[in-house]
Amino acid sequence: MLKRAALLLALTLVSTACSDEEPALQTAVPELVTTTTSGPPETVPTTAPSSTTTVAPAQTTSTTTSTTTTTLPITEAELQLTEIARGFEQPVLAVSPPEDDRLFIVDQPGRIWVLAGDEPELFLDINVDVIYGGEQGLLGLAFHPDFAENGRFFVNYIGDRGETRLVELTTDDGAKADAASQKILLQIEQPARNHNGGMLAFGPDGYLWVATGDGGAANDRFGQGQRPDTLLAALLRLDVSTPGEYSIPEDNPYVLDDEGAPEVYSFGLRNPWRFAIDGDTLYIADVGQRSVEEVNVTPIAAAKGANFGWPVFEGSDCFKGPCDLEGTELPVVEYSHSDGCSVTGGFVYRGTALPELSGHFFYADYCDGWVRSLAPDGETFEWFGTNRDRAITSFGQDSAGEIYVVTKNGSIFKIGRA
What we know:
By secondary structure, the chain is mostly beta strands. It is built from three helices and 29 strands. The strands form six sheets. Strands 1-4-29-28-27-5-6-7-8 form a nine-stranded mixed beta sheet, with no helix packed on it. Strands 2-26-25-24-23 form a five-stranded antiparallel beta sheet, with no helix packed on it. A five-stranded mixed beta sheet has the order 3-22-19-18-17. A hairpin with a 2-residue loop joins strand 20 (about 315) and strand 21.
């Protein structure tokens, strides 16, 4: 069993850069590349037994071949990781604006790069505003559904007092954003430096969803997990239709209920390291404390006022009793720390290159480096086995629905057919 220090290290995206680093001392511009790593799929139990050991598949490096749209039985499908860019300092997310062919890379020290053309271009640099180190830094990015028309986008980062900042920015030409356009919409005080969540995404309702952790330290030290009246340990749902401010959607669960903060949609989360919204379904990868990692899957409607259990439960295990299951949303997938140590959530595949994987939610483990998918019927598949050098910090998804793997060593890989 891993100790807490190992757990923190698992999701702590460690770097030697300091928050007071001068902008002139940035790393070299990242570069575009094309190398591949292949691995056969394996079916794994939805709840991995503690005795299961995933064996790393043989891996090869070769020139990328053209992709096809052949539909194969999923048990015959083989995937590969094609490295498309490298040299980022500490990438933590890759996303695209709606109907935009470009891929934007979030670099934790406070920069956003765009992949378009022969080499990555710097889209935004707010390094001087971001506290970076460990689990702190620039953590989230979401483009307004009408980004092509209004140039609005949103970021989540840790500010100079260690607080979470939800910030709106704009770009005039879509190619470069001005740091001076920042408008702080929301600030959340953080009692510790870890468990910051940070994911942002727009739902099908047009509202902005924001993930927050439990305030950090360990064992829900600050008592936030079971308190919907705070903005920590929660999923927030905000109306950002008016530039420069947010309002509360009328159907949020606590609009007329003083037991919860009006921004809160769901609570009981420890450190949701990435969530995804696919149609009317919500996927949340929540990092565990001492023994269990979990993925929650629920309809958005059922997530309204939902309690995901932390710290009463860690996964489906009783953690800090009394443990009454009534009213608790338990995970659909969980695995023990004999199979990894820190879950990394991804996206639901909606691309065309791998039609047999349509509807699969991809996720990984930071420490063990494997990559798995959860099928719509609840079956799980392992596509890339244990590789502790891989250190998957996050995933990415482009506007075509294809999925990418983001690694701590500064590389971005595209998932495709082998």
